[in-house]
Amino acid sequence: MKYVAAAAIFIALVFLFILNRTSIEPYLPGWATTEDTPVVASTRHEGQHGGQAGARSFAATTTVAKSGSLPVTRQTIGSVVAVNSAALASPAAGIVAQVIAHDGAEVKAGDLLVQLDDRTIKANITRDQALLAKDQAALDEANITLKRVETLSRSGADTQQQYGDAVAAAKQAAATVDVDNANLAADNVTLSNTQIHASFDGRLGAVLVSPGAYVAAGADVVVLTQMKPVFAEFSLPETDLDIARSAMANKRLTVNVTPTLDRSVDKATTGEVVFIDNAVDTASGTFRMRAEFPNETEMLWPGQSLSVTVNAGSKDNIVIVPTVAVQPHGDGFICFVLRADQTAEMRNVVPALSVGDMTGVSAGLQDGEQVVIGGQAGLVNGAHVDTGATKAKG
């Protein structure tokens, strides 16, 4: 039974070969092809190019390689980060007397947001002011007495002891006034702690307190976030660090961003990179960057996810070909170049960068050379190429 099954499989394979001979033959060695396969002058090509030409003519599409420049861009994702964001807390414990701001309000630096009950501290300030006025009057009187005693002492009418006592009394009165001023200043600070102000321009979140509520010292009252400008924060691979640093030093490093969930053209905006982190994240092999955007229309919202395109200038003095012309081969890349005699030359090339469907080559190609962009399957060095399908593509 084993031999019968093997024979059946062999017969089936032969039958499939006969049915698909036309499509299979281009991949067979020359000795395995049938006698009616088209033949070109292979002897001439083999002698001229080292005997690597095949016996067939390969149909291929070519285009012209052209010198030029390509933009150096990188695609990544990021998010919007506020330049300033703070949870405003109550500096002192107390009862909320008034909530001036409302949820989501736009405020300016210094605007009063929440007022705590300040009646007790205001009474203390009134007392401090009265005590200061009293002690200031005592100081004035001590200074007048000191001047009178000093004059009499010079004329000999008063003793030196009386002069010393007058000086001491004046100094004591001055010290008392200094204490009163310090107490008044401290109570004014306490009064200011009953008010919660916006520390910068921005937009409020939800206000967390209501009139009549007790708040502890240090308790959060509302989150204030600056909306203009904002940062777009994102990361790039460590291999792009030198490119980013060089472009930033030359003021050529910009970023285009669009909201990830709404990539319409009118939502795209451009900003300048202002920060490259001082260390590479060893866990991810990336480094962090930030670009600043004016955000006058508040299109970008803190925490929003972004599609990011980093523009790092351009790569000049390269030869540009369609990306399909550049193929991996061994440890590098190759292109098939069409010689003047319509034979293919397998050329080692060094890709510099790819943008969309185009690749810039820094070595291995010359401006104006014809490169194969279609029909590379089975193509070998020295093979004759039929360029009937050639198209001009720049």
Account of the protein in words:
By secondary structure, the protein is α+β, with helices and mostly antiparallel strands. The protein contains 6 helices and 22 strands. Among the domains are: 1-37; 74-83 and 227-314, Elongation Factor Tu (Ef-tu), domain 3; 85-115 and 194-225, OB fold (Dihydrolipoamide Acetyltransferase, E2P); 118-193, Orthogonal Bundle (Helix Hairpins). The strands form 4 sheets. A 6-stranded antiparallel barrel has the order 3-12-15-14-13-16.
Secondary-structure class = alpha+beta
CATH architecture of the domain at 74-83 and 227-314: Beta Barrel
Please tell me what the overall shape is: elongated
**CATH structural fold name of the domain at 74-83 and 227-314:** Elongation Factor Tu (Ef-tu), domain 3
Number of strand elements: 22
Strand order of the largest sheet: 3-12-15-14-13-16
**Quaternary structure classification:** single chain
Cα radius of gyration in angstroms: 43 Å
The main sheet comes to: 6 strands, antiparallel, barrel
Strand percentage lies at: 35-45%
What is the H-and-E element order?
A: HHHEEEEEEEHHEEEEEHEEEEEEEEEE
Q: How much helix, percentage-wise, in residues?
A: 25-40%
Mean pLDDT: 85
Query: What's the end-to-end separation, in Å?
Result: 63 Å
Uncertain segments: 30-54
The CATH superfamily of the domain at 74-83 and 227-314 bears the name Efflux pump adaptor protein, beta barrel domain
What is the CATH class of the domain at 74-83 and 227-314? Mainly Beta
Count of helical stretches: 6
